[in-house]
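Action item from last meeting closed. Structure (444 res):
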């Protein structure tokens, strides 16, 4: 069923719900029978699950209607709202059956979840979207299995999507960058739960083993206590109380121009200047990517290793550099795998639609972004959307994405934005046709 054909309050003007209340809105704009039943049950629960006379039911509708309209309004506007308020609104929408409805409407959409690395120590405290805890990932996979989201290998899912044979709510799990924790922490869970996973690996730090420079510098400044510091190699003196961002930028820019070996020494000098033990970082292999042997271990365990550029750089208009990034990345990864490397993930989500032709000529069959959303048969294989998950994402927010509720919210926002743009254009057109209100001099 096309989204444009669905006659539900979610996809019609908010005024309907505001004017009529939720039950009248449902009667006038009937959804599926399954969802209607769930909403009726929800309304009864709000009335303490008793049989209610008609007059009391009207009071119940009056109780449910305004909060429902407010919630839809919150999601539709797209204005900055407190995350706690959003979560409360999501719980209400789930309670009223909107999650179940959304899952039914979006069941033909392919869900691709994006993770990055696993926390080896306490990196999740520093950046919980980049480094997730093992129990967090386990809980997510258990949710997918419990709620019957079939988890498919990327290749199989894309083939089924193209052929129209995708099972309802099919899901793919991907991980970006190739962090070492995927092997040391994630692989045992992947084996235990028997799930297919695709890992997009960048290979510069496979060739040059050391902590990833940009992330490590950021971590060092995050760990540093506010103080006056003298950065090494004459970079300058900074008061971290008020100049931490400026100091970090100076260190990042200086290190970017150094060769790999000297860059590692600079990291150690920077750690000393910030009064942080670099030994802890090295001994626990923090912020490192997997080596060749670990990549082979993943491939032997059935994990799908795929392309993610060599240097984690992706120019929009330099085709020669794009070709170089793919070629070097493929050359290093081909040592660890025996199958074709045909799927790609844009570094940092940066891409242009014109690059689809470039990638196709390089033997790439799909490319994932970090644009939020689901994927359908008409979705470009070189602009696949993903749901980025991590520490800041609560259970209810994850459920809202997986059921497709947030997909409908995004659709509603696009429609409202288009309506506002159309109204604005009409006003400009209308005003052009009006006579000028400025008096003009009459000529003799």
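Sequence:
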């Amino acid at each position: 069923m096309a989204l444009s054909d669905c006659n539900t309050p979610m996809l019609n003007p908010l005024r309907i719900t505001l004017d009529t209340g939720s039950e009248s809105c449902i009667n006038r704009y009937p959804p599926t029978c399954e969802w209607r039943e769930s909403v009726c049950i929800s309304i009864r629960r709000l009335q303490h699950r008793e049989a209610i006379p008609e007059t009391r039911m009207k009071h119940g509708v009056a109780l449910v209607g305004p909060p429902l309209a407010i919630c839809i309004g919150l999601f539709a506007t797209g204005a900055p709202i407190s995350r706690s308020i959003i979560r409360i609104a999501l719980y209400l929408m789930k309670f009223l059956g909107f999650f179940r409805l959304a899952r039914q409407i979006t069941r033909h959409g392919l869900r691709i979840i994006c993770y990055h690395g696993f926390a080896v120590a306490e990196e999740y405290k520093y950046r919980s979207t980049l480094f997730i805890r093992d129990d967090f990932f386990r809980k997510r996979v258990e949710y997918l299995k419990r709620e019957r989201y079939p988890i498919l290998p990327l290749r199989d899912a894309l083939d089924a999507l193209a052929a129209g044979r995708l099972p309802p709510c099919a899901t793919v799990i991907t991980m970006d960058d190739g962090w070492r924790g995927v092997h040391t922490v994630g692989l045992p869970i992947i084996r235990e739960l028997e799930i297919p996973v695709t890992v997009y690996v960048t290979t510069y730090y496979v060739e040059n083993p050391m902590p990833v420079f940009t992330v490590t510098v950021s971590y060092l400044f995050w760990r540093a206590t506010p103080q006056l510091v003298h950065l090494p190699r004459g970079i300058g003196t900074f008061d971290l109380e008020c100049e931490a961002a400026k100091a970090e930028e100076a260190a990042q820019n200086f290190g970017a121009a150094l060769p790999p070996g000297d860059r590692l020494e600079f990291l150690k000098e920077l750690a000393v200047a910030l009064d942080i033990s670099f030994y802890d970082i090295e001994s626990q292999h923090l912020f490192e990517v997997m080596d060749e042997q670990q990549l082979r271990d993943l491939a032997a365990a059935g994990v799908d290793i795929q392309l993610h550029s060599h240097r984690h750089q992706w120019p929009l208009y330099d085709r020669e550099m794009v070709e170089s990034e793919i070629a070097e990345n493929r050359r290093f990864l081909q040592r660890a795998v025996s199958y074709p490397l045909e799927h790609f993930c844009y570094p940092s989500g940066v891409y242009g639609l014109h690059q689809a032709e470039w990638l196709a000529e390089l033997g790439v069959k799909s490319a994932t972004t970090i644009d939020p959303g689901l994927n359908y048969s008409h979705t470009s294989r070189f602009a696949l959307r993903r749901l980025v998950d991590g520490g800041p994402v609560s259970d209810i927010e994850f459920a809202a994405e997986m059921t497709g509720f947030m997909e409908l919210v995004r659709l509603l926002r696009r429609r409202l934005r288009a309506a506002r743009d159309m109204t604005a254009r009409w006003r400009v057109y209308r005003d052009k046709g009006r006579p000028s209100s400025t008096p003009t001099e009459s000529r003799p």
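Note appended to the action item: Residues 37 and 97 are 9 Å apart (CA to CA).
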